[in-house]
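Deliverable D2.4 — example input (structure tokens):
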């Protein structure tokens, strides 16, 4: 395959860590609020799924956030339990009081953030970042540092702040594409350039404002990023974050890169998060959408019934999904016959032609023919009550 030729020219890692931020950035989805009890349910599921880090929230934000973080930590999960904190003393203390294993601390670095939000110059920002990382490390906790809006920050400053936090003891540097302005080529270049100046693992956090979060995360991995931030169902601020299910399957199935995710649990986890947050997935959502493994066109259905790989890039069971053959105006005779076989319905050729015409007529009226519709039509054709 062409991808294999491309892979040989890249320095792609063997394994990528998944940092899940469903309970933090995902909860920042407009209109979504998750109670501490619901956070615990989701955290347990994320742990079963195999994510490496669960960012459980922003402990400084509320008592509920701290309570949820403490309770999740008390579950003794395999995943590291992480709290978000600005580089402020009160935020860092709130995270430490929540007893998390890991603190993700951040400060804005771009000219826009410096001028309009923080009213600080580069030097002040760098000092605060270094102090925060040192404070976290003095408490024996894993420290990840994010330069918020990294992708709109001058590269010189980005290099300085990331090398300074590395010297201060940071374990991971994270590169947030806070407003999703990157394209794969620029992300690949940026991570490659950062790899020249830091030796600790590089992580990326991509937003989906232009629908490129997954592609940009993959490009970062192509350049050597070892960790990807993602959310279940791509939840998050505005257009959301990198979708965990999409990036994991693309890493594993397309590049052959390992993660610790048990992929068979992806659909169930997506459904749980969708139920709790009330954010429904569009039917055509990759990997977990209702139609992700549904086939309607006669040519496709024929292909899939002969050999599933003709029109499926991966087996639905691999992600906990099931294949569906959908009836409509594009349906071919073979698909209808296969459904009748599944139901154990037998009919002669004339009866089948009548049934086939009826399915097509309904399709032409813009209707989808459900399994129940097909069974009812078949019974009418066979003259059964
Ligand atoms: O998008 C972003 O920049 C963030 C930071 C807190 C890392 O979510
Ligand atoms: Zn974010």
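Example output (designed residues):
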């Amino acid at each position: 395959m062409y991808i294999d030729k491309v892979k040989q020219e890249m320095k792609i890692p063997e394994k990528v860590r998944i940092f899940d931020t469903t309970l933090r950035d995902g909860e920042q989805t407009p209109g979504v609020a998750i109670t501490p009890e619901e956070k615990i349910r989701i955290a347990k599921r994320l742990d079963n799924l195999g994510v490496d880090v669960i960012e459980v929230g922003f402990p400084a934000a509320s008592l509920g956030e701290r309570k949820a973080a403490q309770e999740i930590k008390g579950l003794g999960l395999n995943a590291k339990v992480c709290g978000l904190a600005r580089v402020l003393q009160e935020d860092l203390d709130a995270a430490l009081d929540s007893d998390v294993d890991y603190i993700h601390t951040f400060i804005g670095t771009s000219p826009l953030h410096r001028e309009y939000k923080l009213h600080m110059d580069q030097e002040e920002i760098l000092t605060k970042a270094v102090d925060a990382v040192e404070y976290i490390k003095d408490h024996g906790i894993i420290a990840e540092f994010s330069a918020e809006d990294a992708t709109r920050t001058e590269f010189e400053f980005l290099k300085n702040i990331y090398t300074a936090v590395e010297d201060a003891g940071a374990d991971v540097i994270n590169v947030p594409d806070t407003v999703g302005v990157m394209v794969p080529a620029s992300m690949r270049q940026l991570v490659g350039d950062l790899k020249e100046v830091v030796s600790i693992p590089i992580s990326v956090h991509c937003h989906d404002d232009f629908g490129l979060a997954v592609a940009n995360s993959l490009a970062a991995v192509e350049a050597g990023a070892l960790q990807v931030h993602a959310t279940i169902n791509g939840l998050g601020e505005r257009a959301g974050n990198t979708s965990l299910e999409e990036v994991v399957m693309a890493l594993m199935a397309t590049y052959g890169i390992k993660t610790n995710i048990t992929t068979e649990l992806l659909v169930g986890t997506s459904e749980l998060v969708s139920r709790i947050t009330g954010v429904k997935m569009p039917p055509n959502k990759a990997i977990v959408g209702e139609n992700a493994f549904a086939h309607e066109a006669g040519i496709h259905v024929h292909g899939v019934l002969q050999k599933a790989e003709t029109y499926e890039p991966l087996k639905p069971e691999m992600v906990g999904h099931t294949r569906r053959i959908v009836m409509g105006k594009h349906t071919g005779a073979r698909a209808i016959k296969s459904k009748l076989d599944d139901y154990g319905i037998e009919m002669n050729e004339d009866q089948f032609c009548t049934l086939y015409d009826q399915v097509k007529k309904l399709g032409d009226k813009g209707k989808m023919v459900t399994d129940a519709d097909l069974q009812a039509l078949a019974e009418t054709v066979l003259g059964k009550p």
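The two ends are 54 Å apart (CA to CA).
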